[in-house]
Structures are given as structure tokens and as C-alpha cells.
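Let's practice the habit of predicting before peeking. Look at the sequence and jot down your guess about where helices and strands might fall. Then scroll down.
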Amino acid sequence: MDVRAILKATGFILILVIGIPANLSILMSFFTSAVSEKKLMPTDFILTKLSFVNVVVVLVRGIPQSLTAIGMQKLFNDYGCKFVIFTYRVCRAMSVCITAVLSIYQCIVLLPPTTKFMALKQKVSQNIFLLFLLLWCINCIIYIPAGFMYSQAEVNSSIPKYALNLEFCFVLFPHEVSYRVNGIVYTFRDFLFVGLMTLASSYIVIILYKHNKKLQNIRSPDQKQKSATELRAAKAVVILVTLYLVLFGLDNAIWMYTLSVSNVAPAVSDARVFFASLYTAVSPLVIIGTNRKIQQKLKCTSANIEHNKRESSVTHIAMSKEEKNY
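Done guessing? Here is the structure:
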């Protein structure tokens, strides 16, 4: 196995090892909260959706990339390729959209508590499910051509000019027009939501600066704690958006480079795929590190597991003594 294959396999295995348990921990934490508290706050609902699409991206992209890196070939037939490519592209697009929605929603939460803005906050909270349903439908429609019409497991001869070689599958566009339209639509969608999250995060940073000054003059403990909670949530969103913008910038910088050269080295393509997938593994770590509700749930779960282990050990010792006495 050459150095490129080793680095590729190591990178995607790390994404799997980190991304799957981290995202599942978030999902289980919010699931137990929803069951115990009989409700889920809008921010928690958004983070649940983000973790769900992230774990799907890790599975449908990380596993095939890791297996091809260690030499396995022909992982899927045509139907398998269509399912994997469609699922990956839709969930990756939803990851972008959900991060943007999270930043926009946090902006709305931080708006002044006037009658007009309170009505807006309530309306957005009530219709957040419909918004996600709309985003799912739009992204599914956008990715039907590349996911179902142009995807296949193998090519008969040499790889055509307007094709994407994913190593485990191929996306073969019939002509230049479909290839360029496909790229323009995806690029427009990504830059639209990246622009929205950038604007929203910039507004959040301004609000954070103002709130920090205001927080110093607040004397009421309850009001101070409430403001501190809002600030902590806003800071978490800014960190998430900043992380996405950095990885998005690396992804697109590599993409711009590939457009400027005639022959793209396989290692360059691997790097772009890796950076495009890295957000799904790193973002849950940011969420866990900044969300106290998740931290408390994980501590409770850990404490319960430790308690059960101790009870099992005590029971085992007691039974051993009884058997010995008997």
C-alpha cells in the first residue's frame, strides 16, 4: 500500500471513529431529553437534524472511501451507487442548510424583545419543521439527475470527459451543458447558504460585543444567568459557522486549483473530499463541548453505566461467597 492510500485510509477512518460516536451521542442526548421533558427546544431540534445528516454523510462517504483506500473494489452495483451518491449529496447539502438555519435562528433569538420581534420568534419556532421539510424537498429535487440518472458503478471503456470519478462509483454527465449546469446549481446553493450564515454570524458577533458590555451592568442574578445562557449558545453557533467557513474555503480553494490544471493528482482530489467530509466529524465535538445539556446527559449516562458495573461486581462477589459457603 502506497503512502497516499495509507494517508487516505487513516484520514477517513479517523472521521468514522470520531464522527459516528460523537453524532450518535448528540442524537441520544436529545432523544432522552425529548422523552423525559416531553418537548424539544427549537435549537435542540436543529442540532438534532444537523447530527442526523452528519452521521449519514460519515457513513455513506467515509466507509466507501476507507474501503477503496485499502484496495477493495466494486463495492456497489449501479443501484447501490445511485443510492449512496444521492444520499451523500442530499445530506451534505442539508448540513450546509441546517448550519445556516441555526445561525439565522440564533440571530432571531438575539433580537430585541419588542412585540414585533416576539411575534417573529414565535412564528419561526412554530414553522421550523415546515422549513426543514421544504429544504429536504428542494435538495432531493436538485440531486435527482446526479444521484439517479447519471450515476453508475462502472464504465465500459475509458472515463468520459464530463465525468466524476469517485473511485467506488462514477457520475457520467451526457454533455458539457449538463456538467456545467450541475456545477453552477450546486455552487450557487452552497454560496447562498454560506453567505447567509456569514451575515448571520457577523450580526451575532456584533450582538455578543454589545451584550458583553451590557452584562457587566446587570445586577439581577436570574437575568444575568439568562443573558449568559443566550451568549453561550450564540458563541457556539459562531464557532460552528467559523469551522464550516474554514473547511468550505479549503474545499473550494482546492476546487479552483483543479480547474486551473489539466491533470489533477489523485492526492489533491482526496484532500478535497477529506476537507468536505471533515465538518461532519468535527462539528459534533464543538456541539458537545459547548452544550451543557448534552454534557449533563452524557455525565448521567456515564454515571449510570458505572453504577451498573459496581452493582454487577457486588452481586458477582456476593454470589461467589454464597457458593463458597455452600
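How did you do? The chain is about 80% helix and 0% strand.
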